[in-house]
Write a structure and sequence with these properties.
2 copies of one chain form a homodimer. Chain A is of the alpha+beta class. In chain A, about 25% of the residues lie in helices and about 30% in strands. The first copy, chain A, has 2 domains: about 130 residues, Alpha-Beta Complex (Nucleoside Triphosphate Pyrophosphohydrolase), CATH 3.90.79; about 60 residues, Orthogonal Bundle (Arc Repressor Mutant, subunit A), CATH 1.10.10. Chain A contains 4 helices and 9 strands, in the order ββββαβββαααββ. In chain A, strands 1, 2, 3, 4, 5, 6 and 7 form a 7-stranded mixed β-sheet that branches. The mean pLDDT of chain A is about 90. Chain A binds a DNA duplex (27 and 27 nucleotides) through helix 4.
Chain lengths: ~230, ~230
DNA sequence: CCAAAAGTGTTAGTGATACACCCATGT
DNA sequence: ACATGGGTGTATCACTAACACTTTTGG
């Protein structure tokens, strides 16, 4: 049930969306952070996000904020969790709906907006101290990312359209933070039928060029592997 | 990042919590619904819930509403999803954080509060038309319930402290909506070491009494089985 | 002794893991 | 010819699925 009385007569919390955006860059798992230009936590690094407007859905708000603050668009986006501890923002009650997103970082150029001083990719192993409860939110997002990688095909969102099987395997190794066996990895990828080979090969490499693959489009956008 | 400006200067949506409470009763999977006593959707059945107060966390709000509206407490509770389509409530913008809960229905007596006309368990196969987007929320909850059952030990929340292995298996069969093999089920339960046998037996049965088991407390509250 | 549910093992198939060598290309 | 990563198969083990009869109790 929605409620018992007229919604107008209650105090209302503020609602924000936060977006934890991951990418793979320089052989490392990175998360996008912005440097706050306003109080509270001015000059600290934080997860990008902002207020939900009255006329937009939560997902629209997440996409808009990401574009405004960081110039990033066309990402894989999914809702993560809603954090609503009354004390999480020192000023007033703020409930934040967090989203988790993945991009291939080659596809765009970062750009700080007027609201933030700076935008930067941080290795998840070298994070600065974060504003609000953003440390918790990030840890939660990382768990979800690892889970998703194992049981769905989200990994493709981190790669260009055509990729080698070694590139795909490297994504898994970086995120899972462990080595995988090449033969077993390929066997599984083929058994699941999630990639299709193309007739093209890698170029500009100083060794035997690898065959390029693309995502098998017969399986929908994001397939639950199990 | 939380935001760029003073939160006070934005219009704020209302925030509610909704609780989808499942139980097993008469060999069927049931969900708790309340009959609305107020507009909008007066006299329709809906998922119990209500406004989040400024000083309480989301989870506290969920527990409070459940107790107030239905007299139910001590449930397994977990956050499900946040629904925020701008049009989901015809009056004003309402964002709802949904929770998913499980109880053993023998443990309490239902009681309608002043805000609702009636409270009732409905079989998930015989649902009335629901208020708002509550049909969608319920479908989502059901998916999550099935998933949780397969990969965690939430099923114990639906049983009394001591139970037979057949009772446990029946929970799985009702929720998964398929028959399971008795020998394989028992083999798996034992291999996972999630139950401990007691020295007691069923009584008041007209056939060979089954041994009673209890949850193995060495595993924490809710264990991820995989 | 009959009805009802409890309890118990084996086999076959499927998927996961461990492991090492030859191949194609550029320099 | 050498260095670099690309590409491939087999054996073992663990887990899943299919399947039927005997036991214990109350009536």
């Amino acid at each position: 049930m929605e409620e018992e009385f007229d919604p107008e007569k209650y105090d209302r919390p503020s609602v924000t969306v936060d977006i934890i955006l991951f990418t793979i860059k320089n052989g490392d798992l990175k998360v996008l952070l912005v440097k706050r230009d306003l109080e509270p936590f001015k000059d600290m690094w934080a997860i990008p996000g902002g207020f939900v407007r009255m006329e937009e859905s939560l997902e629209e708000a997440a996409k808009r904020e990401l574009l405004e603050e960081t110039n990033v668009k066309d990402v894989y986006l999914e809702q993560l969790y809603t954090f609503g501890n009354p004390k999480r923002d020192p000023r007033t009650r703020v409930i934040t709906v967090s989203y988790f997103a993945l991009v291939n970082s080659d596809k765009f150029k970062l750009k700080a907006s007027t609201d933030v001083k700076d935008v930067k990719w941080f290795s998840i192993y070298e994070l600065p101290k974060l504003a609000f409860d953003h440390q918790d939110i990030l840890e939660y997002a990382l768990k979800r990312l690892r889970w998703k990688l194992e049981y769905t095909t989200v990994a493709f969102s981190l790669l260009p359209e055509r990729f080698t099987l070694t590139e795909l395997q490297t994504i898994y190794e970086i995120i899972m933070h462990k080595q995988l066996d090449k033969r077993n990895f390929r066997k599984k990828v083929k058994a699941l039928d999630i990639v299709k080979e193309t007739s093209e090969y890698q170029s500009d490499v100083t060794h035997r060029p690898a065959k390029l693959y693309k995502k098998n489009t017969k399986i929908g956008e994001i397939v639950e592997i199990f």
